[in-house]
Amino acid sequence: MNVPIASGLGLYAATAPAYRWAYVRQRFEGFLKNLQITTDQADDGETKHKGVVAALNRTYWGHGNETLNRLLIGSWGKLTRVRPPRDVDLLFMPPVDVYHQFNQRTGNKQSQLLQHVAAALRATYPQTTIRGDGQVVVIGFNTYRIEVAPAFRAEGGGFLICDTNDGGRWKHVDAEGEIAALDAADRQFNGNVRKLARILKQWQRYCDVPIKSFQIEALVKELLPTKTYGGNHEFWFDWLVRDAFAHMIARANGGFWMPGCAAEWITLGDAWLSKAQTAYDRALKACEYEYDNYEALAGGEWQKIFGTMIPLTV
Fold first, then answer.
1. What angle (nearest 5°) sits at the alpha carbon of residue 297, between those of residues 293 and 299?
2. Residue range 182-194: average pLDDT?
3. What is the pTM assigned to this prediction?
4. Domains of the chain, start order
């Protein structure tokens, strides 16, 4: 067992190995394990969202199937969720006749459709807070928030969903294209797209960073091809995390095109920039400590970025 001793640098292992970066792989393997949702959390999310789908199928399709006419999106659809999970996002596909029915109306047709969906869900969940919010209907369960976007298959691919802002419009999205693009990149880089996305989502949560999860995923997909070690295992993750923050900083106020057939330019802005710069400075210091095998000192710097989900010592 390593015995901590005092030094000018603080606590470090008296019997640290002679080779460098002795603790990186174990630290990040432990971190990623800590980010995995538990079986109970997964089961709870499944039960909650399947109940919502069954309720909508009863209203719009005349049966109570729990999985038909739905597509999981967001962190559940992309498998980038982290512990504790906060919400489940999904598309629900009513019959196309519903689209034509509401599209013939006057006023904010999209808001009216969201209210129709919300009313259908209140019949099943009368004690639960349910509201329309921009593009989705939000069902506020105690343990999970389920966000449902009614969606219709679009000609040429993708879906039309509601956008109630500015008087209402149909918005073209390609959730399946987004998932396929992430799958392809993740396979190319040995699972590191999802791993690094989960890690950065923990920073987003712990440091209350105003950046969207899908923007993090896009930046990770950009980063990994630029690094010769982009597909390497967790021994390299101190550098990959450091490099991810550097890449984010360089991309402030830039943007990217959403993958798939629904071309949409996404602006990154810079509201998150100062927190990314702080995280980068701490990651630089952590990398220096990892190089010299200052186990707890490195862990302390990582915990300033990610909280106690990343181990202080391994």
1. 90
2. 98
3. 0.91
4. 4-23+189-309 (no CATH), 48-173 (3.30.460.90)
